[in-house]
């Protein structure tokens, strides 16, 4: 299988995914694609020897489908048949989501279905939750909806701030996403549940 990874920023999840696709792994990265020309992850991908591309969303303004048609063209030119969203910060329309239905994953820093959307760590703390974590799900038209394919959970510690919590969740993301992709690339949708003990 060939995988296109879409990023908007530093791409730490992209790096973990690329590094995992070696040896007998059924997939290989064919493209790292960013909507932002200045995304730090583009340099990291190039260092890892992965082809990169940029489709800047700004020139498209409110023409989301025009932007997404360019994304599809770039992804298909790389021969990818799986898409991993990894810190990709653009909302995708049903057009793009429908085109990749059943072939697109996303990682979200919360225990979905809790805390869809942004500022997930602050919201978990404000709610007084005792645990938190991250989820990998198949992408559907509902933002951060779709079937959950993996979760990693950890305890919230007294004194945690959104930043300290995010810093503990990120390494779990880096373990969970590659584990889910490896299984998903074989067509297996059995959910993976990790705890910090696994980490
Ligand atoms: C992470 O918190 C991830 O959960 C979210 O975007 C943030 C940055 O990810 N999807 P990355 O370092 O760009 O992979």
Question: How would you describe what is shown here?
Answer:
The record marks 144 as: Raises pKa of active site His. The active site is at 108 (proton donor). This is Phosphoribosylglycinamide formyltransferase. Helix content is 34%, strand content 23%. The protein has helices spanning 12-20, 40-47, 64-77, 94-99, 120-126, 162-184; strands at residues 2-7, 28-34, 52-54, 82-85, 104-108, 131-138, 148-155, 192-195. Strands 3-2-1-4-5-6-7-8 form an eight-stranded mixed β-sheet, sandwiched between helices. Strand 2, helix 2 and strand 3 form a beta-alpha-beta unit. Helix 1 (12-20) packs parallel to helix 6 and helix 5 (120-126) crosses helix 6. The radius of gyration is 16 Å and the shape is globular. The two termini are 27 Å apart. The mean pLDDT is 96. Residues 7, 9-14, 86-87, 107, 109, 134, 170, 173 line the site of 5-O-phosphono-beta-D-ribofuranosylamine (GRF).
Tag the structure with descriptive keywords.
alpha/beta, 199 residues, 8-stranded mixed β-sheet, binds 5-O-phosphono-beta-D-ribofuranosylamine
What layout of secondary structure does this protein have?
Blueprint: E1 2-7, H1 12-20, E2 28-34, H2 40-47, E3 52-54, H3 64-77, E4 82-85, H4 94-99, E5 104-108, H5 120-126, E6 131-138, E7 148-155, H6 162-184, E8 192-195
Parallel strand pairs: 1-2, 1-4, 2-3, 4-5, 7-8
Antiparallel strand pairs: 5-6, 6-7
Helix pairs in contact: 1-6, 5-6
This protein binds 5-O-phosphono-beta-D-ribofuranosylamine.
5-O-phosphono-beta-D-ribofuranosylamine (GRF) is lined by residues 7, 9-14, 86-87, 107, 109, 134, 170, 173.
